[in-house]
Amino acid sequence: MFKVKDMKEESKKWKQSNMHYTIIPGILEHEALGIEKKIALVKDLTTTIHIDVIDGKFADNTTVLDPTIFKPYAQKYFLEVHLMVEDPEKYVESFALNGFKKFIGHVEKMPDIASFVAKAEQYGQVGLALDTPTPVTALTDVSFEDLDFLFVMTVKAGHSNQEFMPEMLEKVRSLRSQTPFLPIEVDGGINSETLPQAKEAGATDFVVTHALFTASDVNKAYQDLQALLQ
Q1: How many domains does the chain have?
Q2: CA 58 – CA 148 distance, rounded (Å)
Q3: Which has the closest alpha carbon to 130: 171, 69, 158?
Q4: CATH number of the domain that 101 lies in?
Q5: 187 flagged as catalytic
Q6: Sign (positive/negative) of CA torsion 81, 202, 147, 46?
């Protein structure tokens, strides 16, 4: 059983009409220099940055695993870590000590969901992620009141620049029907065409990688996406 948080009643009655929507730049890189370059591109556009961490076991890819390189950015940005790793609980403390305040753990490689949630909530916000093959029923025994948000992959986790899978929005709709009060974050293939679809399904937060960082004008690309949230 999870430890139930003391949530305000008005939060439990949170309605879609009052949702706050956010564009979050997502960074999936294999070396520190690539991370630095991408953060520099969005340094004046956002206060939140999403960092992908992949250990080569969760997916056939590996990113920077050293959390210390992010510490200089923690004072300016709200850092969230997307743990595409085996046993994400093992990574929580080290990333927290280097400034991360939001922790996304995949249920697929999570030995103990309750333990991960309890660990992460000591340091900040905690959410559970579903990869594309994983059904919503994987969260059947989860109390949403113990979470700060939910996370749905709209491409197979592990690589950037993949084609958006619209069928994954059924998961978003299902989760939204179960919880009118929790933010739902989506990640994968988000661009000017797919963002409105995800928003209509009930998503509130949108991780954008390829569509943002390959744009000829990153500032304009970000503002164009932001305008779709109005």
Answers
A1: 1
A2: 23
A3: 171
A4: 3.20.20.70
A5: yes
A6: positive
Describe the chain by its helix, strand, coil percentages, rounded to 5: 35, 20, 40
169 with 147: CB under 8 angstroms?
no
Q: Strand 22-27 and strand 48-54: pairing?
A: parallel
Out of 52, 55, 146, 205, which one is annotated catalytic? 52
Among candidate residues 178, 176, 188, 225, the one with its CA nearest the CA of residue 19: 176
Distance CA 107, CA 86 (A): 10
* Entry pTM: 0.91
Which one of the listed residues 55, 131, 146, 187 is annotated catalytic? 187
- Flag whether 168 is in a domain: yes
Structural domain of residue 148, as residue ranges?
21-227
- Return phi, psi of residue 48, to 5°: -125, 135
Q: State how far the Cα of 4 lies from the Cα of 70, in Å rounded to an integer.
A: 31
Q: pLDDT of the chain along its 230 residues, tens only?
A: 333 343 333 333 334 446 799 999 999 999 999 999 999 999 999 999 999 999 999 999 999 999 999 999 999 999 999 999 999 999 999 999 999 999 999 999 999 999 999 999 999 999 999 999 999 999 999 999 999 999 999 999 999 889 999 999 999 999 999 999 899 999 999 999 999 999 999 999 999 999 999 999 999 999 999 999 98
Within a domain: 14: no
- Note the maximum CA span of the chain: 49
- Asked whether residue 12 is assigned to any structural domain, the reply reads no
